[in-house]
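FAQ: What does a multi-protein file look like?

Like this. Sequence, then tokens, then the next protein.
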Amino acid sequence: MRLISLLGLPFVAALASAAVPFKGCQHKVKESIYGIPRGWSRHTSAPKHHMLELKIALPQPKFPELEQHLWEVSDPSHSRYGAHLSKEETDALMAPHPESLDIVNEWLASYGLAEESLFRSSANDWVTIRVPVSLAEEMLDTTYSVYKHAETGESIVRTTSYSLPEILHDHVDLIQPTTMFARFKAFKSTLHWTNQVQAPVLSTSSGTITGPAGNQVDASCNSSITISCLKQLYNSVAYNTSATSGNKMGLTAYLDQYANNMDLQQFFQLENPSAYGSNYTFVSVNGGLNNQTYAAAGVEANLDTQFGFGLTWPTPGTFYSTAGEPPFDPDVFTATDTNEPYSYWLDYVLSQPSLPQTISTSYGDDEQTVPFTYATRVCAGMAALGARGVSILFSSGDSGVGDGNPDPATQMCYSNDGLNVTKFLPAFPASCPYVTAVGATVNIPETAVSFSGGGFSNYFVRPAYQEVAVSEYLTKLAPGTYEGLYAPLTSIQAYPDVSAQGVNFLVVYQGQTTPVDGTSCSSPTFASFVSMLNDARLTAFKSPLGFLNPFLYSAGYSALNDITMGHNPGCGTEGFNATTGWDPVSGFGTPNFEKLLALVLSLP
């Protein structure tokens, strides 16, 4: 370690390569998994010429300080509430120690990787390199293989273990793609196609029914959801957003999901004629495309833009299209093999000096498919966005507590820790404590939908803001409930935080109106009302809300419609029940905009 500190001195820098003999240094396992995850099998050895795009995460020694800033600027009772950090301030708090930069640079240089061949994140906490499999295997003392997924047939290049020179272990948090078998290319965005999730309640009046705010709502909203329905249900009909407050609404797209502009204009004509002719700002991340052919239209991207921008118009919208993992054919030459898309999107947005105040994402995967180290780093990026004043919302998932199947004989929830035992399968990034996870409801009166993702993380410790609400819920469970299906429930992060309608959203897709279900409907819906609240605060010369959860768990819950019916089965169980107060099916419930508006405008 004394040698490492010397690397910062100019007169010995030239000696670094010789002084730190990486190639002859003893390698030690940095990360490994118990075996090939369920559903995957080894197909063949990875071609030596196949190019890997490796992302190297350097430690963030000042992250606890960043996290403390996040708690303070997000807590309405704190004197620093709303004093969000700048890009430069968050960069400084995410930056690695200079010693880590130096020794990793020297390690890379020892393999011929000079500075001009490296790509660095804005905070220098990530380094990306492009190397052939042959060099990656030498650097990481490992062997890459091609693995195939039995259900989808997709192929990826991965390994089950990698090593680094022992001197590097304290200076590198992780390197991927190595041990991550998350199906980010193949997993469905959280979207359901069935229209029979739960039968709509028939209206008992001629044209209207009573909504959760006590107001009258069109009876048709019990069978199909439109922009008008959501504004009626959630009590925002009287509010008009501004185009000049400085407020912006952001939506993300991955996995080659393209928002079709012809479909968007047709949707506006049908559901918000005032918005017809308006557009949004398209941002390409990591080569993300904007394919406008009808054949390439994506239901998920159409859903997000049509409802997200339709509800918030004329607030300016930003649509991020992030290129994901390219298909890999093990039988032909494929140019490159990249990581899942969240890290690329985070690299991009955290490098920008100005960001939308509200961003919704409708994608996720089983938490256990993402290595703990990687999940932790992605989650830390979400914390940085919150500290900068961005409200980040994620769909909570569409499989209840795991696979959506209550039958013990046919359930498919198994651990990938080598024990192959039945386990609930929480979703990520919904389980990250620095995002707001949104579950789904249906009908009027509202009921939690059976597919609404919810439960408890196996990775993240419960934050202080959740302690009272979640502990109260746990007292309602019988002793020993679901023992062994999670880590101890008394100490781990719970989700979702809130919910919104998620069934029978009328989306225009390839020129046709199509009903869509899923928490993919719920997240942009709740985010749209958050964007309206940010619009009101900015118009009143106040700060944006930023990270929502400390506010929601301390005061905001009083302005939400509590959902007390429904449950989310899965993994051979009936899952959890919705009940009074917070629950792991619907969170604290759905928005009552007028109540929320009064509340957020009363905050400093």
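And here is the next protein:
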Amino acid sequence: MEAESAPAGESLREATQRRLLRFSELRGKSMAAGEFWDIVAITAADEKQELAYKQQLSEKLKKKELPLGVQYHVFVDPAGAKIGNGGSTLCALRCLEKLYGDKWNSFTILLIHSGGYSQRLPSASALGKIFTALPFGSPIYQMLELKLAMYIDFPSHMNPGILITCADDIELYSIGESEFIRFDKPGFTALAHPSSLTVGTTHGVFVLEPCNHLEYRDLEYRSCHRFLHKPSIEEMYESDAVCRPRNFFQQEFAGSDIPSLKLEPEYVYTDSLFYMDHKTAKKLLAFYEKIGTLHCEIDAYGDFLQALGPGATVEYTKNTSNVTKEESELVDMRQRIFHLLKGTPLNVVVLNNSKFYHIGTTEEYLFHFTADSSLKSELGLQSIAFSLFPSIPECSTNKPCIIQSILDSTCSVTPGSVVEYSRLGPDVSVGENCIISGAYVKTTAVLPAYSFVCSLSLKMNGHLKYSTMACGVQDNLKQNVKTLSDVKLLQFFGVCFLSCLDIWNLKVTEELFSGNKTCLSLWNARIFPVCSSLSDSVTTSLKMLNAVQSKSAFSLNNCKLLSIEEMLFYKDIEDMITYREQIFLEITLNRKQSDLETSY
């Protein structure tokens, strides 16, 4: 096989670069039937998010950053209870039926789940996880373009149906040059990646039917006996999900740079994306039409895939350990889905030379963009991507990451930090492991290590305003308490939140929090000042951050304050896109002038 002639890491890099090159050739070109996806759909949690996604898609199409002649849609979840990505999938099927009637039974459809508010990576909260910028490309690639590039070979080897993926993960794979991944079997087909048992505890794990060949292959088509959702290591052993390298596999690849198998004598196959054929999609749609409105969260992976395979049992439907409400309805809904899908085949495409990356948390984001040499090599990630900033010494291994930003020559950005869509003026110093997004720092400033700083444009009562969320990259914005007396349990930048409120001269009252008054968190704490200019907004929020660090008073008592929750409600997408475009144009103009000067 061709892929075996090169080391695993090198063949993975070459395959990835080949797909990126092919996609770059399709950007801005009209696609013929069967050449690309018929439909690309993105899910949104609410109407505000739907509008933000539509605006960004429109901009991309206008600037010819995507293939043309494709139907791009944003499907919004219905108002009311959270319905999970499984519920969003059912909603999307209904939307397709309404838009296309029977026509969609001949379409290849890519469905990307991008609902939710990205509380673990709040720099993606306003504009969406699927529009997260990546440090390469000109213009800069975002997660949407990367998804389309990595799946570029799929539509032409796929029967009509839907490929379902999430917005915050990256799947890279290498197979023989004459091979293709085929999605042409009835029922469900899922990709599987070799992973350590520890990784398996946070993913779906496939219990495969016995293999009838001994030699290693990059690409294998297998049948799945049973699917486990986030199992314990003990459950993996009990279910026969644990694999041991076959002779050839152990010899050639046990020492490779496949992170899941490095020095691992045992491994499991974990999930990523999956496909369902049109007949199965219609079955799920008929079920959804029958039940009407969903009142509980359905997991497309845990609740659809666990029902599949001859070894599936109804037991998983009663496991509600991770669910806080709607338990009785959830169990009933899971059981109905189990009986609906039981007997449906689960085909598995095993990709032995593949990697799965998740970029959904601040920790993962910083690691993969600044310190992960593997992903950097495979995708061609850059330390300075489409930016104006003095060069970084090549010998430096751990570097900062600058994405579409303009930094003064006297700026310093410590390795391990990411700056995106920002302007940093003279003598601005950024500490290690910071995330700076959409900011404008005009004057001398010090951004402490582990700072998270993200600015949003707001439209309030018809007026343009700005607010900057500033906290610690390790702060848990989702952690919540039920009563005001327990607010002391929350932490802001590693400091008791109650102490922070004292420093800012703010009182602990119900008015301090927006939204649900029995779910109090940093997410809905009204602590971020509203300002008339972007630079003032950043400066003021940095002062509150530095006050916490130095334990010196900085009163916010006379400021108009918003929570992150409210900032997202008031966000002005158009102005944020305009700000990014201004930076883009300035960098483009500067590069043209540099090219002219060089040519003389």
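Q: Is there any per-entry metadata?
A: Some entries carry free-text notes. For the entry above: The chain has two domains: 8-245+262-358, 382-585.
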